[in-house]
Amino acid sequence: MIRIGQGFDVHAFGEGDHITLGGVNIPHDRGLVAHSDGDVLIHALCDALLGAVALGDIGRHFPDSDDQYRGIDSRQLLRHVIDLLRSAGWRLGNADLTVVTQSPRVSPHVSAMVELLAADCDCLPKQINIKATTTERLGFTGRGEGIACYAVVLVVAV
Ligand code: MG
């Protein structure tokens, strides 16, 4: 038995000197505006995982009106989502993640992100693929206003 899930998230650039993406801190001339650490990659992944097993979305489990999630490390949220999946009898089969941003360059950090996410998802690095694209300077990502991320996952019954 397998199920598929998809997730999408966006965060706007704001004040700051780094972004957190896939658990990795990347120096940048701006940060991301968020209630949490703004890890748009992990948020999209969490939504895809929750979607695959019909457990709603990240906002339902970790409401941004709740102060306990202010500034939280999104890897904690991901590990909690994986626990929920495990309890429901599922594990991650594979995840394919696409970061959409004009800057900073993501590719130098992909292998570090994969290692961290595989640890959090209790899977092998080869089960997680991260790629990045620009939008050729078109749209809000192309204008450098924010970062978007798409996630697709397959989950497998344990
Ligand atoms: Mg988010």
Mean pLDDT: 96
Biggest pleated sheet: 5 strands, mixed
Radius of gyration, whole Å: 15 Å
Q: How large a portion of the residues is in β-strands, by DSSP E?
A: 25-35%
- The succession of helices and strands, N to C, reads EEEEHHHEHEHE
Q: What global shape is seen?
A: globular
Count of DSSP E strands? 7
Which stretches are low in confidence, meaning pLDDT under 50 for 5 or more residues running?
none
Number of helices: 5
First-residue to last-residue Cα separation: 9 Å
Bound molecules: magnesium ion
Structural class based on helices, strands and sheet pairing: alpha+beta
Helix share, percent = 25-40%
Order of strands, widest sheet = 4-1-7-5-6
Structure, explained:
The chain is an alpha+beta fold and 158 residues long. It contains 5 helices and 7 strands, in the order ββββαααβαβαβ. It has helices at 40-52, 58-61, 74-87, 110-121, 139-142; strands at 2-14, 18-21, 24-27, 31-32, 90-100, 128-133, 146-157. The strands form 2 sheets. Strands 4-1-7-5-6 form a 5-stranded mixed sheet. The protein has a two-stranded antiparallel ribbon with strand order 2-3. The longest helix has 14 residues, at 74-87. The mean pLDDT is 96. Magnesium ion is lined by residues 9, 11, 40, 43.
Task: Give a brief outline of the structure.
This protein has 158 residues and is of the alpha+beta class. The protein is built from five helices and seven strands, in the order ββββαααβαβαβ.
How is this fold's topology laid out?
Layout: E1 2-14, E2 18-21, E3 24-27, E4 31-32, H1 40-52, H2 58-61, H3 74-87, E5 90-100, H4 110-121, E6 128-133, H5 139-142, E7 146-157
Parallel strand pairs: 5-6
Antiparallel strand pairs: 1-4, 1-7, 2-3, 5-7
Helix pairs in contact: 1-3
The structure holds magnesium ion.
